[in-house]
Amino acid sequence: MKNQNHIQPPKWPLAVLRFFMKKEFLEEIEGDMEEIYQDYLDKHSRKKAGRLYALETLKLLRPNLLGRIRVLSRFNNYLLLKHYFKVGWRSIKKDKVSAMINISGLTIALTVFLVLSVFVKYESNFDSHHALANRTFRVVQHTHYPEEELYWNTTAYPLAAALREDFHNIELVTQTAGPFDRVFSIDAEKGERHLFESDYVLFVDSYYPQVFDLNWIHGDPTTALGEFGNVVLTESLAKRYFGETSNALGKQMMLNAKDPLVVTGVVKDAPGNSNLRYEILIPYQFFKHHNNYFANNWSGNYQGTTFVVLPENGSEAEIETAFVTWKKKYLSTDDDQRIDYFLQPLKSAHTQTLYGSSPGSYMVPRTILNAAVFVAAFILLIAVVNFVNLVTARAGMRSREVGIRKAIGSSRANLIKQFILENVILVLITICLSVLATQLVLDSLNKSLTIINLQLVLTWDEAMLVLTAGVLTIIFSTIYPAVVLSSYQPIKALRNEITLKGTRLRKSLTLFQFSIVQVFIIASIIVGSQMQFFKDKDLGFSSDAVLIAPIPRFEKLNVFQESIISDSKFESVSFGSGPPMAINGRQLGTTFRLPHQTEVEGFHAEMKIGDPKYLDFFGLELIAGRNFRENKRGFDEFIVNETVLENLNWTAEEALGKKLRINEGEATIVGVIKNFHNNSLQREITPVILMNWDYFQDFAFIKSAGSNAAQLIKLEEIWKATFPTSIYSYGFLDDSIEREYALEQLILKGFSVFSILVIIIGSLGLFGLMSFITLRKTKEVGIRKVLGASISQIVLFFSKEFIYLIALAFLVATPIAYYFMDAWLQDFVYRIDLSIWMFAIGGALTLTVAGMASFFQIAKAVTINPVETLSSE
Amino acid sequence: MKKTKLGEFEELVLLTVIVLAEEAYGVEIKRELESRLKETLSVGSIQSALKRMEEKGFLTSEFGEATGKRGGKRKRIYTATPYAHRILTEMKDIRSQLWEAIPEPMISFQGL
Question: Is residue A360 part of a domain?
């Protein structure tokens, strides 16, 4: 018999059986199954027998035959877990205030942390989505002047072709021009004509799609941008004007009402985190054809950017070295001495301040991103500290519960588990809330900052980050209460003989928090004062009620002027290349020198074109000489500011009648004007040369007798009647000037918001500390009261605790705030002086807030009847 | 009968146990019932009925000898308790009384 029984049934069903079956049934049923298998073997093939056997075994899994599953029984405290959950939930419910404080504090901090991480990640990864991003560089230019050095991220147009020709150790070279604003018209089917303006028209050469990843929806990447007269649209633009993206293909649109372009491709919209913004891509040949002078000029640079891709393991230093001798081949001797080329990694183009923001884009300095990381980490840190503080303080009140638990046999491990579970509940609620809040904040940020095309998204990376933060919080907040409380001797705990330790640790944590709080408050006060200073500063010209409207060049300026002046709603009108202060960085650059000097000896200056009304219109003060009489095709008169004279060591009287040479030609100085702020207040006043040229008169300035809607409507009417083929837009000069401080405004807003958040979180921490201290001193207060202490004496007794802390924090915060804010202010040429009151107000404010935060705890401790506290023994 | 319910399948298994006497163990009960009912039964259904009835006090059991065919595992031999015998008799009586109470014509009608 034994010999026949060598065929064994398959093993796994038996394993299943052994796992699930009640142990006492196992021997009998295993035997039965063995017999059954042998029966099957007699009748069926081995394979089929095995299958039937397995099926039969699975049918044995019936409720009354199953044992307790052993995996679960390993956590045999499932019931206990349920109990802990219940007790945890009850204790949260019992002390709603402190649970709320705990949850809200941590939620705020986690939300800030998440939002900032998303933001920093977004801003740090500009253009890194391109496949070749790691090997792509932007060619940047340093221009030396006797007085200063200028750094450009734009370069001369012929550069790209020359690099492609001469450098065989550069893999790819591409060239962009713009983005520029252009007006387009599309003839729709029903004889309608869409007229629209795009601010993001980018001219790119045929190498562009190889260097940068465009996501093509329609069109051939290799040819779509190849030919003169082609145009590629982004998805959203194609949808807006052609309905479906596929409809757009092959359609014609007109640029500036004269040049027909055929749509040869549609690409997905440029991602938000890219410095290369475009809505419309047009082959570079088109730009070259229409801007022959710029496209062949090596001396200047006009919104053109050159990118190169180096081969794997290519060296940028090697190429930069080669530039030094190579450029002589193309640049004039003067330019060769002035101009140097370098390579800037594409990935740092968004955060490196030296070269400024890319055309049509914005930048976030690396320092701000680093500051954001610090702020995020600090806020999270102080919130975690609070959480730990509050949980510990609360745990202290439960020493009796711990005593009873231990007395009836709870192990230390079980107590620790209980505390962990309670914190897990709190932290889980917090995480859910903060993820929700983050999503809301991101949505509103994306909506309110469409101007910089912000597209922040919360991803799993951040979710993991927040989970890690949550786990760390749980660990930290559990160690103390869990370990210390669970170590109590039950008898002492029951008799309330436990003394709460760790006051010093808690105090130093609060000290740390309040130092940060005060740094933030002081920083906000200083940034705010600087902004106020900007607003109040006399700019040297008047900008009140001035409207600016771009106008087409060389067109009917007189007609426009007549119509405006004849209307009583307007006071005066003037034309020029721009307002006295550069807005959006728009300035015309040149160099000036004496007629006999070479270009290298020249000084950098801004050239400004106005008209005879310009000085009066903006209230610019003439200190010598006279105004222009008229604007001419060939300019022959200059009016200069005082800074020009400083460079030449002339007095105003000496300057009059002297000849001066600029890049564009030569003319006589007829007047000198007082310095005014021609740059925004972050920068110094630079030399300005006003000239009577009729070129570059791109803006009309209109002073209205107030600023109500009727005037705006009238202006639009006149404008459209005079220039029917162009698109009307307007702005207030005040607003434009204010926009120059957008970054500072953002910093101010950031500091204010974070100060408030930090104050809230810090106050919660103080609240926790005070509840801890008052709890510990309940009995002492009782005795003091019995012995006749007055309420005010006891209030003082407690207030000492936090006043002393805040004073110490102030001493820590002041030098830190001074150091950082002084460094920040150094960036501004026109800045406020730091004064004591800024720090004093910061300290006083913190003290007030701290007083309010401690008030409730102190009031509770003071008003309690000593009978209650003393009879608890 | 009032207190403890004996299901139809359980009754069949119980009767089989009595029939098989010394040989009444899991697989044998299954074989016997299968041949009588002319249908296949699963070990699970038999075992679960046996355990249920043991819990209700209709059966007792003890280990029998081990055989090679069972991979060295012992059989569990089931025996009906006196209580089970009494219940079975009661049920049989009730049934036969009911059968007798059925009026004649109906039987002959059925017989047609």
Answer: no
